[in-house]
Design a protein that fits this description.
By secondary structure, the protein is mostly helical. It has helices at 2-31, 39-71, 75-107, 116-139. The chain is 85% helix and 0% strand.
Length: 141
């Protein structure tokens, strides 16, 4: 069982990292540059994609916490895992709700400037990338 837990604690952060990089830093900005994609369509797609990403991230966080509990890793693993999981909680519970309310208003036809919450979300994504890299390094066999 410890062998499986060790592999999960090392592999899942890298998988999680790849998903965040691909979606947040590649798909999200590029979709608005695609021909025919309106702001409304882009927002609708973004909401679906980020809801799915955050769900998968939450599952990964729970799996990582469970695997770490079985493994009893070094303190560094717990610190990086706590930072990554904490950032995810902040994004989902604190930052995404205002972004969702804003996108509701844009979808209802209002023209609004870019939200400060958007910049917070991006900053937290960068911090989460760093935490996931730290976690993968700390957990490396």
């Amino acid at each position: 069982m410890k062998s499986v837990a060790q592999h999960l604690v090392w592999f899942l952060p890298m998988l999680w990292l790849g998903m965040v990089l691909a979606i947040s830093f590649l798909e999200a900005p590029l979709k608005f540059r695609a021909p025919g994609v309106t702001t409304e369509l882009g927002l609708g797609i973004g909401r679906l994609v980020f809801r799915a990403l955050n769900t998968v991230e939450s599952v990964f966080a729970v799996m990582l916490i469970a695997a770490a509990a079985v493994l009893g890793p070094a303190v560094g693993v717990w610190v990086w895992l706590g930072i990554a999981a904490g950032i995810l909680v902040l994004q989902v519970a604190v930052v995404r709700p205002p972004l969702s309310r804003r996108s509701d208003r844009v979808l209802a036809g209002e023209e609004l400037p870019r939200s400060g919450a958007h910049y917070w979300y991006i900053g937290l994504e960068v911090a989460k990338v760093i935490a996931l890299i730290g976690l993968a390094i700390a957990a490396a066999p």
